[in-house]
Write a structure and sequence with these properties.
736 residues; alpha+beta; Multidrug efflux transporter AcrB transmembrane fold; Alpha-Beta Plaits; 4 domains; 7-stranded antiparallel sheet; 5-stranded antiparallel sheet; 62% helix
């Protein structure tokens, strides 16, 4: 691999570096505006019934689902019906209705009968004005930001707060942006300190950070370009920072370490660069391809939230790999032995020892492989048990800690002090049914008898518990179309609300019907994701198997890697259920236990799977190199692990730092993403690579390298093996 590439970077090194610098400047300028182009949603799809119902609701009935709540709080000793409170409530509703791009969906002081009761708290202290901020996600976010200061405040003891989905999006996006800066301020200094400590040289320590910086800047530019043609979620920035810094460091660490090793072994600079590109560079190429393919599986899902992480992940992997394979070798060519300049701390050997901690550990494990592997496998499987009871939801105001978000404060009141959830009503659209007919009345009456229904509003009457309790709403019938509002008595994202959606959809309607609302959106998201899971899993398994076969020439090693990584990630996901769903560590991390945001386990699986394969490729690359040099399996494993073990440990520590930094976030699903991904990296780089891998390779012995004869011939014909002289490097005194 890489003859022409080696020639380019060694003969045109300075030109390559100049082009790299120019591209980085252009990318920095172009990517500076990326944040303003990204969106805060992405948890639904136009293909879902709930989305089509929402569109039909607006188009046919001129109705809107509420996404903005004005919570009016009466002063002590008063109620929402007190004249002063009522006057301010009506005034707030009138001001909201007068705002451009906003409609009033409901107001306690304008409603009557059961509808009014649903907009008033059980103790009479609170009352609601429900509004809809119109437009796409960008327009809603911008307008909600503008409305918050206009309607938030206390006058004459009457307090008004803004809440609802629109305000929650504002609060979450603002918190994510703040958390991103905090995470970077934590990760970058720690990473630099660790790199300098590991390399013992400031020059060598800065090189990986340079590659990480290029990857982040380049990906910001890529996201800016992608956002010009399709929707991209702002949450993709978290992955960009974490993986850009982490993978850039991983790849540069591998390249720099191998280069220094070859220099220490007596090679001249150009020869050392050539060997580095053909060995470490080959590993980088396959690692990047494996991670990119794992993340590409996210493209099959209908939610642009998930697709955004695929855009960001593929871009950051590709740019990090390109910079490591082109810019880094050029820089190493220019630096030569000066890569070791500005030494910090005691002298450290650039050459791995033939016998050290990792060699002794792997040798010990391989003496009793079954005895060593069983406890580790048991621990990981026990970690995964809580995942059997996983529950899924969508993010709402509760992803931010209590007391740190206005939307959260309003949401807590809605959940605790109101008997019905009018702000989370289901809207049933009957596109070809006239309102006010006996058929509509019978349908609404039947819906009202379903469990967890507070009431049903329809043009033929208002119903509760199977009986009519009020007159119909004329605004729910327009022309030949009608609408029915089902107001639940349970939280919108609870399992009871999801069962209610299925029950509503199961009741025979007098014609075509479409169901919208937050609960319906969650049910549709779960269905949309589960329907694509087999395809995504198949793509991950197939592409990973093919790439690892091309890398190793074996069909056994790819299968072993797939099984181990799946078990490891299952253990991590179980730990996330234990922590974030069941609420353990909620006091330490300051979050509210809720069902897991449905997209996050899937995202974590793809990210953690790709990163686990990253270290698998690192390790297999060195073990395979030793095996092809004539070593038996035990020697190849112990020598390869010794030569790459310390590097994998350092790379894992550096990458884990960038992910663990996101555990400082105030948004619970970002905390889960950072903590879970970091835990997967640490677990993979310690127990898995240190114990399970050598144990299984020892058990399988020569079978590790087996492939059917036709595939073996195909692998030789493709010619992806590195062709270099493999020779042991001499040990230096004081090597660690």
């Amino acid at each position: 691999m890489g003859t022409r590439l080696v020639h380019l970077v060694t003969t045109r090194a300075r030109a390559v570096l100049i082009v790299t610098a120019l591209l980085a400047v252009v990318a920095g300028v172009f990517g500076a505006g990326a944040v303003g182009k990204l969106k805060g949603g992405g948890f639904d799809s136009p293909s879902f019934e709930s989305a089509r119902a929402k569109a039909a609701l607006a188009e046919l009935l001129h109705q809107q689902q509420a996404n903005l709540v004005l919570l009016v709080t009466a002063p002590q000793g008063s109620t929402a019906d007190s004249p002063a409170v009522a006057a301010q409530g009506r005034a707030a509703a009138a001001r909201l209705a007068a705002q451009p791009g906003v409609t009033v969906v409901g107001s306690y002081w304008a409603a009557q009968g059961p509808a009014a009761a649903g907009l008033r708290s059980t103790n009479g202290t609170y009352a609601l004005v429900l509004g809809r901020v119109l437009g796409d996600e960008d327009a809603v976010l911008k307008r909600a930001k503008e409305l918050e200061p206009l309607f938030t405040g206390t006058t004459g003891g009457v307090r008004i707060q803004t809440g609802g989905a629109a305000q929650a999006t504002v609060d979450i996006n603002g918190q994510v942006t703040e958390d991103l800066g905090r995470a970077e301020s934590i990760a970058i200094p720690l990473t630099l300190a660790l790199l300098v400590l590991v390399f013992g040289s400031l020059v060598a320590g800065l090189l990986p950070l340079m590659i990480g910086g290029i990857a982040i800047i380049g990906t910001f530019a890529a996201l800016s370009a992608i956002a010009a043609v399709t929707d991209v979620s702002i949450f993709a920035l978290n992955l960009t920072t974490a993986m850009g810094l982490g993978l850039g460091i991983d790849y540069a660490l591998l390249m720099v370490s191998r280069f220094r090793e070859e220099l220490a072994g007596g090679r001249e600079t150009k020869d050392a660069v050539a060997v580095t590109v053909r060995t470490a560079g080959r590993t980088v190429l396959f690692s990047a391809a494996t991670i990119a393919m794992a993340l590409a599986a996210l493209l099959v899902f209908p939610l642009y939230f998930l697709r955004s992480f695929a855009y960001a992940g593929i871009a950051v992997v590709a740019i990090a790999a390109a910079a490591s394979l082109i810019s880094m070798p050029a820089l190493l060519t220019v630096l030569g032995p000066r890569v070791n300049k500005l030494r910090v701390g005691p002298r450290r050997s650039a050459t791995p020892r033939s016998s050290g901690f990792w060699s002794r550990l792997s040798t010990l494990v391989m003496r009793r492989p079954v005895l060593a592997a069983l406890p580790v496998a048991a621990i990981i499987l026990l970690m995964g048990l809580p995942f059997l009871n996983v529950r899924f939801g969508l993010p709402d105001d509760r992803v931010i800690p209590a007391g740190q978000s206005q939307a959260r404060s309003v949401g807590d009141v809605l959940r605790s002090d109101f008997s019905s959830q009018d702000s989370a009503a289901m809207s049933v659209v009957l596109p070809s049914v006239q309102g006010g007919t006996p058929a509509v009345a019978a349908y609404a009456k039947q819906l009202s008898a379903l469990p967890d229904v507070a009431r049903v509003d329809s043009p033929a009457g208002t119903f509760a518990h199977g009986s009519q309790v009020g007159p119909g709403r004329a605004d729910l019938a327009v022309g030949s179309s009608a609408g029915v509002r089902v107001i639940p008595s349970v939280d919108a994202y609870s399992y009871a609300a999801q069962d209610l959606v299925r029950a509503v959809r199961g009741v025979a309607a007098p014609g075509e019907r479409l169901v919208a609302g937050p609960s319906a959106e969650l049910v549709d998201v779960k269905s949309g994701i589960s329907g694509r899971l087999p395809l995504a899993a198949g793509l991950i398994v197939l592409t990973t198997f093919v790439l690892l076969f091309l890398f190793t020439g074996s069909v056994v090693l790819p299968l072993k890697a797939l099984v181990i990584n799946a078990i490891t990630i299952g253990g991590v996901l179980g730990a996330m259920v234990w922590i974030f769903q069941q609420g353990h560590l909620s006091g330490l991390l300051d979050f509210t236990a809720t069902p897991l945001t449905i997209t996050m386990p899937l995202l974590m699986f793809c990210v953690a799977f790709g990163l686990s394969m990253d270290y698998e490729v690192f390790l297999l690359g060195r073990i395979t190199e030793e095996h092809r040099a004539g070593a038996d399996t035990v020697t190849a494993v112990s020598t390869g692990l010794e030569r790459i073990g310390r590097l994998v440990s350092v790379a894992a520590a550096l990458l884990a730092i960038t992910f663990f930094a996101f555990a400082s976030s105030k948004v619970s699903f970002i905390q889960m993403f950072g903590l879970g991904s970091g835990l997967a990296i640490v677990l993979d780089a310690t127990l898995v690579r240190g114990v399970l891998v050598p144990a299984l390779m020892r058990i399988m012995g020569p079978v590790n390298w087996w492939a059917p004869a036709p595939l073996a011939r195909l692998h030789r014909r493709i010619g992806l093996r590195e062709e270099i002289e493999v020779r042991p490097a001499p040990e230096l005194v004081g090597a660690r």
